């Protein structure tokens, strides 16, 4: 039975997720190197620390940091979780950040001598989904550990999909992201062209959604404006999104290079994503600020 | 423009109605010609005939029209010979063929010795510009709308095509009973050519999805993931797309795109044509379109490896159990 939860990485995703876990009645400890991120939790009476090792007493540790290196560091670093683990009390480590299956499998090998129970649990749904508790959670690893984690995941997301062994959920996540990234980029060019031809964006999206062009930007009844507004709120937000897109596509390219078959589209997508910049930002802003659709 | 009315006695009535209403009221379509009796045109023509329209078929391929002999359908040797129909559905492949069918030496216009009201319905995918150009050369009695379709051969057989329409409202109203037999979903997109633009943009995304999802499903299969399960998760996440929509998995969709080498080659040809149209549109529009250009170059270079990927997906076993969804 899980009573206590540690959340490492109190950022745009981690903070709302931690709040929901706290609200659900779990004993919470939050961890981030950024003291500002922790302040609101301290005010709410939540235990907070800058050292991952102090999270080792929790029944489950959720890791929601930005990069694979950070994942390794919060687990294996000098002040990492492992430095605090006591033999008689071994937490479940749930990696919710996106990383390659290879990286998480490497991590598992490194951790093998310990009794630590590593699972992967990447999420989809963004900051808004984290806020509302409507994330989709993909899981990979030992089924008992995942079963044990279920009550915690249940306060974060409405849908959980078990994908297979450790690393399978990360592979699933990468597969999802590559499709979403490609669709975000190409749909933007299509919407821009549609605007140039005088077509109404909400109408265009409705048609796409009923046809072969269906994608995540076409399903919103209000049109694609809101989706592009959230992806390109300002130049800085767009830059971080672009970095994530490049990371995803790079990971997929890496996965592809070691798989049977040829993957020219993933390679081409990687090249295109590396070339994106100001022009694309301007294009996405233009979509974001397009007049709302006709009824 | 004069009301489309063949009956002098009705002229008095039409005087009190708006032009738009008049055309809508009196242009009743009873006879339909279908030009281009291919994989799509043939089943569509059969549906129209079954619904009671007087059918004329026309195709340069004698074998294609032979299937209609003895069914009560008229067979026209050239588009000019089919010119008497109230409406003519044009389902040929290339812009040049559309031009020839309408304006060529044996085209529909050449057959209209006595000008009579007829409605040309361009269902092939061609650029809006080509249509607008042809439209400028038509006499006032010959109306034109565009009505590109999606839904494939199965949709054509079952009458479940999605039909985008562009053109004057009264013409769209007149053709509706015909289109109703072909597709449940008719989506008006605006004026002549707008449906084509919409279609080309949709196809661009559809092609991009087919190609990228094709690699992604292959990768997933290599990783030991079940394609149907992958689709289920994509549907719940941001990767959802037209290929993941089928709850049975992506297998049957890729089997259609790459049934065998021949059908795959046809798919490639259509993809290249559509992307040619969008790149042309992009070249004439402001802004930069690196992804469209990248996609065009990519699809121009596709070949055996992509066919193999798609066949691999088409043939991948469905693991048979419902994907595990835990928790609610």
Describe the 3D structure:
Chain A is of the alpha/beta class and 295 residues long. Chain A is 52% helix and 14% strand. A six-stranded parallel sheet of chain A has the order 3-2-1-4-5-6, sandwiched between helices. A three-stranded mixed sheet of chain A has the order 7-8-9. In chain A, strand 5 (92-95), helix 5 and strand 6 (117-120) form a beta-alpha-beta unit. The mean pLDDT of chain A is 93. By secondary structure, chain B is an alpha/beta fold. Chain B has helices at residues 11-16, 19-26, 41-50, 62-66, 95-103, 108-111, 128-136, 152-158, 169-180, 194-222, 227-236, 251-257, 261-283, 290-300, 304-315; strands spanning 31-35, 54-58, 74-76, 87-90, 118-122, 142-146, 149-150, 162-166, 185-190, 325-326. Classes of the chains: A alpha/beta (295), B alpha/beta (328). Chains A and B meet through helix 7, strand 9, helix 8, helix 9 and helix 11 of A and strand 9, helix 10, helix 11, helix 13 and helix 14 of B. Strand 9 (157-164) of chain A pairs antiparallel with strand 10 (325-326) of chain B, so a sheet runs across the interface.
């Amino acid at each position: 039975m899980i009573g206590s939860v540690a959340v490492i990485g109190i950022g745009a995703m981690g903070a709302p997720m931690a709040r929901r876990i706290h609200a659900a009645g779990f004993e919470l400890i939050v961890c981030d190197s950024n003291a500002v991120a922790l302040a609101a939790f301290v005010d709410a009476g939540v235990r907070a620390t800058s050292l991952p090792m102090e999270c080792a007493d929790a029944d489950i540790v959720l890791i929601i940091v930005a990069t694979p290196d950070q994942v390794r560091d919060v687990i294996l670093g000098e002040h990492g979780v492992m430095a605090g683990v006591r033999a008689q009390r071994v937490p479940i480590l749930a990696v919710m950040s996106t990383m390659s299956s290879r990286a998480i499998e490497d991590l598992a090998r490194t951790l093998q001598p310990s009794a630590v129970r590593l699972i992967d649990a990447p999420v989809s749904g963004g900051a808004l989904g984290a806020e509302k508790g409507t994330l989709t959670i993909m899981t990979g690893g030992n089924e008992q550990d995942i079963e044990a984690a279920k009550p915690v995941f249940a306060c974060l997301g409405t849908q959980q999909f078990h994908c297979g062994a450790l690393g399978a959920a990360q592979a699933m996540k990468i597969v999802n992201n590559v499709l979403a990234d490609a669709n975000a980029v190409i749909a933007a060019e299509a919407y821009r062209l549609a605007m140039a031809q005088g077509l109404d964006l909400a109408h265009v999206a409705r048609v796409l959604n009923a046809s072969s062009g269906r994608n995540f930007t076409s399903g919103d009844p209000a049109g694609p404006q809101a989706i592009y507004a959230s992806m390109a709120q300002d130049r800085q937000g767009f830059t971080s999104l672009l970095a994530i897109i490049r990371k995803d596509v790079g990971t997929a390219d890496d996965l592809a290079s070691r798989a049977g078959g040829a993957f020219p589209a993933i390679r081409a997508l990687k090249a295109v994503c590396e070339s994106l910049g100001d022009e694309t930002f301007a294009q996405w802003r233009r979509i974001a600020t397009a007049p709302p659709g006709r009824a | 423009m004069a009301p489309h009315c063949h009956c002098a006695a009705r002229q008095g009535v039409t005087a009190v109605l708006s032009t738009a209403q008049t055309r809508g009221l009196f242009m009743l379509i009873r006879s339909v010609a279908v030009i281009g009796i291919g994989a799509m045109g043939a089943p569509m023509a059969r549906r129209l005939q079954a619904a009671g329209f007087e059918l004329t078929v026309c195709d340069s391929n004698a074998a294609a029209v032979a299937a209609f002999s003895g069914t009560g359908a008229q067979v026209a040797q050239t588009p000019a010979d089919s010119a008497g129909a109230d409406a003519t559905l044009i389902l040929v492949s290339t812009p040049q063929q559309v031009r020839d069918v309408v304006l060529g030496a044996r085209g529909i216009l050449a057959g209209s010795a006595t000008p009579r009201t007829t409605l040309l319905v361009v269902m092939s995918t061609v650029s809006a510009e080509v249509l607008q150009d042809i439209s400028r050369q038509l006499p006032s009695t010959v109306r034109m709308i565009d009505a590109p379709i999606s839904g494939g051969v199965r949709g054509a057989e079952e009458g479940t095509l999605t039909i985008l329409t562009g053109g004057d409202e009264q013409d769209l109203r007149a053709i509706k009973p015909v289109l109703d037999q072909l597709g449940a979903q008719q989506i008006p997109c605006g004026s002549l050519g707008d449906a084509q633009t919409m279609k080309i943009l949709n196809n661009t995304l559809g092609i991009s999805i087919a190609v990228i999802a094709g690699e992604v499903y292959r990768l997933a299969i290599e990783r030991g993931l079940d394609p149907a399960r992958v689709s289920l998760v994509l549907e719940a996440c941001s990767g959802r797309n037209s290929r993941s929509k089928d709850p049975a998995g992506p297998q049957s969709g890729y089997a259609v795109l790459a049934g065998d080498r021949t059908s795959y080659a046809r798919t490639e040809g259509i993809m290249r044509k559509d992307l040619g149209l969008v790149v042309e549109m992009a070249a004439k529009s402001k802004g930069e379109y690196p992804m469209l250009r990248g996609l065009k170059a990519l699809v121009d270079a596709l070949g055996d490896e992509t066919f193999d990927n798609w066949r691999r997906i088409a043939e991948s076993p469905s693991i048979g159990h419902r994907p595990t969804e835990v928790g609610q």
